[in-house]
Design brief:
Strands 1, 2, 3, 4, 5, 6, 7, 8 and 9 form a 9-stranded mixed β-sheet that branches. This protein has about 220 residues and is α+β, with helices and mostly antiparallel strands. The relative contact order is 0.14. The chain folds into 2 domains: about 130 residues, 3-Layer(aba) Sandwich (Aminopeptidase); about 70 residues, no CATH class.
Protein backbone atom coordinates (compact mmCIF):
# COMPACT_ATOMS: atom_id res chain seq x y z
CA UNK A 1 0.00 0.00 0.00
CA UNK A 2 1.06 3.59 -0.50
CA UNK A 3 1.76 5.97 2.36
CA UNK A 4 -1.45 7.42 3.88
CA UNK A 5 -2.46 10.90 2.77
CA UNK A 6 -2.18 12.27 6.30
CA UNK A 7 1.56 11.59 6.12
CA UNK A 8 2.04 14.45 3.65
CA UNK A 9 4.30 17.16 5.09
CA UNK A 10 2.88 20.53 6.02
CA UNK A 11 2.96 23.09 3.24
CA UNK A 12 4.88 25.43 5.55
CA UNK A 13 7.70 22.91 5.94
CA UNK A 14 7.87 22.28 2.19
CA UNK A 15 7.90 25.99 1.37
CA UNK A 16 10.72 26.43 3.87
CA UNK A 17 12.66 23.60 2.17
CA UNK A 18 12.18 25.20 -1.27
CA UNK A 19 13.07 28.74 -0.18
CA UNK A 20 16.58 29.59 -1.34
CA UNK A 21 18.75 32.69 -1.74
CA UNK A 22 21.96 32.62 -3.72
CA UNK A 23 24.58 35.02 -5.05
CA UNK A 24 26.13 34.29 -8.43
CA UNK A 25 29.75 34.89 -9.34
CA UNK A 26 28.78 38.13 -11.07
CA UNK A 27 27.28 39.43 -7.82
CA UNK A 28 23.65 39.06 -8.84
CA UNK A 29 21.21 37.90 -6.15
CA UNK A 30 18.81 35.06 -6.89
CA UNK A 31 15.79 34.06 -4.82
CA UNK A 32 13.05 31.44 -4.98
CA UNK A 33 9.43 32.24 -4.10
CA UNK A 34 7.65 28.91 -3.63
CA UNK A 35 3.89 28.72 -3.25
CA UNK A 36 1.38 25.91 -2.81
CA UNK A 37 -1.05 25.70 -5.72
CA UNK A 38 -4.76 25.19 -5.01
CA UNK A 39 -5.71 21.51 -4.98
CA UNK A 40 -8.09 20.72 -7.89
CA UNK A 41 -9.57 17.74 -6.08
CA UNK A 42 -9.27 15.68 -2.93
CA UNK A 43 -6.28 13.70 -4.17
CA UNK A 44 -3.45 13.35 -1.61
CA UNK A 45 -1.11 15.57 -3.62
CA UNK A 46 0.64 18.88 -3.07
CA UNK A 47 1.72 20.93 -6.08
CA UNK A 48 4.18 23.79 -5.76
CA UNK A 49 5.11 26.53 -8.22
CA UNK A 50 8.44 28.27 -7.64
CA UNK A 51 9.06 31.58 -9.45
CA UNK A 52 12.77 32.45 -9.40
CA UNK A 53 14.06 36.00 -9.52
CA UNK A 54 17.43 37.53 -10.27
CA UNK A 55 17.40 40.93 -8.67
CA UNK A 56 13.85 42.14 -9.20
CA UNK A 57 13.26 40.22 -12.45
CA UNK A 58 11.76 36.75 -12.76
CA UNK A 59 14.16 34.63 -14.83
CA UNK A 60 12.94 31.09 -14.17
CA UNK A 61 10.14 28.95 -12.86
CA UNK A 62 10.17 25.50 -11.29
CA UNK A 63 7.45 23.05 -10.34
CA UNK A 64 7.47 20.26 -7.75
CA UNK A 65 4.83 17.75 -6.70
CA UNK A 66 4.60 15.78 -3.47
CA UNK A 67 2.53 12.62 -3.55
CA UNK A 68 2.36 9.07 -2.26
CA UNK A 69 2.69 5.97 -4.43
CA UNK A 70 3.36 2.27 -4.05
CA UNK A 71 6.52 2.53 -6.15
CA UNK A 72 8.18 5.42 -4.28
CA UNK A 73 6.39 5.90 -0.98
CA UNK A 74 6.07 9.54 0.00
CA UNK A 75 8.12 11.42 -2.56
CA UNK A 76 8.74 14.73 -4.26
CA UNK A 77 8.80 14.92 -8.05
CA UNK A 78 10.95 17.46 -9.86
CA UNK A 79 8.57 18.30 -12.68
CA UNK A 80 10.42 21.12 -14.42
CA UNK A 81 12.93 23.95 -14.13
CA UNK A 82 12.72 26.45 -16.98
CA UNK A 83 15.35 29.19 -17.10
CA UNK A 84 15.36 32.12 -19.50
CA UNK A 85 18.15 31.93 -22.07
CA UNK A 86 20.17 34.66 -20.38
CA UNK A 87 19.90 32.97 -16.98
CA UNK A 88 21.45 29.66 -17.99
CA UNK A 89 24.96 28.49 -17.31
CA UNK A 90 25.50 30.60 -14.20
CA UNK A 91 25.27 27.78 -11.65
CA UNK A 92 21.87 28.45 -10.13
CA UNK A 93 20.34 25.07 -11.01
CA UNK A 94 23.17 23.16 -9.33
CA UNK A 95 23.19 25.40 -6.26
CA UNK A 96 19.41 25.12 -5.84
CA UNK A 97 19.50 21.34 -6.23
CA UNK A 98 22.25 20.93 -3.63
CA UNK A 99 20.35 23.11 -1.14
CA UNK A 100 17.07 21.27 -1.73
CA UNK A 101 18.70 17.88 -1.30
CA UNK A 102 19.87 18.91 2.16
CA UNK A 103 16.50 20.43 3.09
CA UNK A 104 14.48 17.45 1.86
CA UNK A 105 16.01 15.27 4.56
CA UNK A 106 14.13 17.28 7.19
CA UNK A 107 10.83 16.30 5.52
CA UNK A 108 9.13 12.89 5.90
CA UNK A 109 10.02 11.92 2.32
CA UNK A 110 11.29 8.58 1.09
CA UNK A 111 12.54 9.60 -2.34
CA UNK A 112 13.13 12.33 -4.86
CA UNK A 113 11.85 11.38 -8.32
CA UNK A 114 13.46 13.11 -11.28
CA UNK A 115 12.40 13.28 -14.91
CA UNK A 116 15.59 13.81 -16.88
CA UNK A 117 14.37 15.30 -20.16
CA UNK A 118 15.81 17.95 -22.45
CA UNK A 119 18.81 19.65 -20.87
CA UNK A 120 18.26 17.52 -17.78
CA UNK A 121 19.41 14.33 -19.51
CA UNK A 122 23.00 15.16 -18.62
CA UNK A 123 22.38 17.60 -15.75
CA UNK A 124 20.82 14.91 -13.55
CA UNK A 125 23.56 12.35 -14.19
CA UNK A 126 25.20 13.15 -10.87
CA UNK A 127 25.52 11.68 -7.39
CA UNK A 128 23.39 10.62 -5.60
CA UNK A 129 20.92 10.20 -8.50
CA UNK A 130 20.32 6.60 -9.56
CA UNK A 131 18.17 5.14 -12.33
CA UNK A 132 14.58 4.45 -11.31
CA UNK A 133 14.83 1.11 -13.12
CA UNK A 134 18.13 -0.81 -13.26
CA UNK A 135 17.36 -1.78 -16.88
CA UNK A 136 17.28 1.86 -18.02
CA UNK A 137 20.74 1.85 -19.69
CA UNK A 138 19.68 -1.08 -21.88
CA UNK A 139 16.41 0.69 -22.74
CA UNK A 140 18.32 3.85 -23.69
CA UNK A 141 20.51 1.80 -26.00
CA UNK A 142 17.63 -0.09 -27.64
CA UNK A 143 15.80 3.16 -28.43
CA UNK A 144 18.87 5.29 -29.16
CA UNK A 145 18.57 7.66 -32.15
CA UNK A 146 19.32 11.19 -33.23
CA UNK A 147 17.86 13.29 -36.05
CA UNK A 148 21.05 13.29 -38.14
CA UNK A 149 21.31 9.52 -38.57
CA UNK A 150 19.39 7.42 -41.12
CA UNK A 151 19.95 4.20 -39.16
CA UNK A 152 16.91 2.75 -37.38
CA UNK A 153 16.84 3.41 -33.62
CA UNK A 154 18.93 1.02 -31.56
CA UNK A 155 22.53 -0.11 -31.00
CA UNK A 156 23.51 0.30 -34.65
CA UNK A 157 22.39 3.93 -34.58
CA UNK A 158 24.46 4.43 -31.45
CA UNK A 159 27.52 2.83 -33.07
CA UNK A 160 27.04 4.95 -36.21
CA UNK A 161 26.94 8.12 -34.09
CA UNK A 162 30.04 7.01 -32.18
CA UNK A 163 31.85 6.46 -35.50
CA UNK A 164 30.83 9.93 -36.73
CA UNK A 165 32.43 11.36 -33.58
CA UNK A 166 35.58 9.30 -34.27
CA UNK A 167 35.24 7.29 -31.08
CA UNK A 168 37.32 4.05 -31.14
CA UNK A 169 35.21 1.36 -32.84
CA UNK A 170 36.36 -1.51 -30.61
CA UNK A 171 35.68 0.47 -27.46
CA UNK A 172 32.23 1.46 -28.73
CA UNK A 173 31.37 -2.17 -29.52
CA UNK A 174 32.60 -3.28 -26.08
CA UNK A 175 30.46 -0.58 -24.43
CA UNK A 176 27.36 -1.78 -26.31
CA UNK A 177 28.01 -5.39 -25.26
CA UNK A 178 28.42 -4.36 -21.63
CA UNK A 179 25.22 -2.32 -21.61
CA UNK A 180 23.27 -5.20 -23.12
CA UNK A 181 24.73 -7.81 -20.78
CA UNK A 182 24.68 -5.97 -17.43
CA UNK A 183 22.74 -2.69 -17.58
CA UNK A 184 22.29 -2.71 -13.79
CA UNK A 185 25.98 -2.00 -13.13
CA UNK A 186 25.78 1.40 -14.85
CA UNK A 187 24.76 4.52 -12.93
CA UNK A 188 23.93 8.00 -14.23
CA UNK A 189 27.13 9.59 -12.83
CA UNK A 190 29.15 6.61 -14.00
CA UNK A 191 27.86 6.99 -17.55
CA UNK A 192 28.42 10.73 -17.45
CA UNK A 193 32.10 10.06 -16.76
CA UNK A 194 32.77 8.59 -20.22
CA UNK A 195 32.24 9.85 -23.76
CA UNK A 196 30.20 6.75 -24.61
CA UNK A 197 28.05 7.19 -21.52
CA UNK A 198 27.32 10.83 -22.26
CA UNK A 199 26.37 9.90 -25.81
CA UNK A 200 24.02 7.21 -24.50
CA UNK A 201 22.33 9.62 -22.07
CA UNK A 202 21.99 12.43 -24.60
CA UNK A 203 19.36 11.01 -26.95
CA UNK A 204 16.36 10.15 -24.78
CA UNK A 205 14.87 11.07 -21.44
CA UNK A 206 15.12 8.84 -18.40
CA UNK A 207 13.85 8.72 -14.83
CA UNK A 208 16.01 8.90 -11.75
CA UNK A 209 15.56 8.64 -7.99
CA UNK A 210 17.38 9.72 -4.87
CA UNK A 211 16.83 7.64 -1.74
CA UNK A 212 16.22 9.82 1.31
CA UNK A 213 15.11 7.14 3.77
CA UNK A 214 14.27 3.43 3.52
CA UNK A 215 11.28 2.48 1.41
CA UNK A 216 10.49 -1.02 0.20
CA UNK A 217 7.89 -1.10 -2.58
CA UNK A 218 5.25 -3.79 -1.89
CA UNK A 219 5.41 -6.92 -3.99
CA UNK A 220 2.97 -6.93 -6.88
Amino acid sequence: MSVPANALPTSESVIAALTFSWQAADGSSWETHPRLDPAPDAAPTQKYTIPITRGSTQVAISRRVIRSSQAHGLHIEHVTLSLDEGARGQGFATAFWEACLINYRALPLHRVVIGADGDGRLFWARDPVQFERPETPRDLLEWWSEPTTVVAPGPQAFLAAAAERRFPARSAAAFVRAIRAKPQIFTPPGLHGSEFGRLLLSANGWKGIVELRPWTPPEQ
